[in-house]
Amino acid sequence: MLYRLLFPLADRHIIFNVFQYISFRAAGAMVTALLLTFLVGPPVIRWLRARGWGQVVRLDGPSSHFHKAGTPTMGGLIIVATVLISTLLWARLDNPYVVVVFAATAWFGAIGFMDDYLKIVRREPRGLVVKYKLVWQMAAGLTLGVFLLLFPLSGRPPTHTMLPFFKDYYVVFWAPLYPLFVALVVTGSSNGVNLADGLDGLAAGLSGIAALTFGLFAYVIGRVDTSAYLGTFYLPGAGELGVFCAAITVRQAPSPSASAALRNALQSLLSLENTPAFSWPRRCPF
């Protein structure tokens, strides 16, 4: 949004020329997400405490977790909101990568919100029933896979995926199986977040590391010079995902639901749109 509003003013004053640089807008997204968290986070936490909306601990879990019952949760609302707002402000909204990332984040964020709502407001420890959760996650993955197959975001076939460390080789998926592959990757990635998180918020550090890594790769792959030097695919426009990733790196995930949402978008584009495959701890279900 700011790019469209302020960059055209570069003809009048050179200072507005900085909005063309991804690095500048990525830094702006980081600062914006951080400030929004500082401003919105404490009031939301106090509001959750006042309403008694805290973590529900399963009775069959470790006894050491029982004292954590009532810990304010649903922090995914803060995470998703701040990241999406920062992306709207600083990223180029005419970039197809950004649009798909934004939609995927909102989709999985909605699933996470429903899960948290059932756990906290309805006091159901299991949250959203696993089979329904998997259905919505698989539906999101299949939809994404079909979309990428019908409307590729780059000049390269979406079914081509690079092999890490082998710049001249890549894996080619059979087109009819490609949506299923995307669905499995997206669903497995989102479900793995909670395994690394639990009640102790361990996914926060992993979220920052993963977002930083994907942001760097997006920036490298989106540049002609660096992609050629490193022997990777060149995906025009992919560098804009660095703005989205930057907004995530400053987030500390108080809820596993949002962590999954944020990373599914990155996984779907950077792992499925011809980039080296990566993996990191995640959990089931969101």
Protein architecture, described:
- With 286 residues, this protein is mainly alpha-helical.
- The protein has one domain (2-271).
- It is 56% helix and 4% strand.
- It is built from 10 helices and 2 strands; from the N terminus they run αααααββααααα.
- The chain has a two-stranded antiparallel sheet.
- Strand 1 and strand 2 (166-172) form a beta hairpin.
- Helix 2 packs antiparallel against helix 3 and helix 2 (22-51) packs across helix 9.
- The two termini are 30 Å apart.
Mean pLDDT: 76
Structural category? mainly alpha
The number of strands is: 2
Order of helices and strands: HHHHHEEHHHHH
Total domain count: 1
| Beta strand % | under 5%
Radius of gyration over all CA atoms, rounded: 19 Å
Summarize the biggest pleated sheet: 2 strands, antiparallel
Number of helices: 10
- What is the general shape? globular
How far do the termini sit from each other? 30 Å
Spans where pLDDT lies below 50 across 5 or more residues: 252-261, 263-286
Helix content: 55-70%
| Physical arrangement of strands within the biggest beta sheet | 1-2
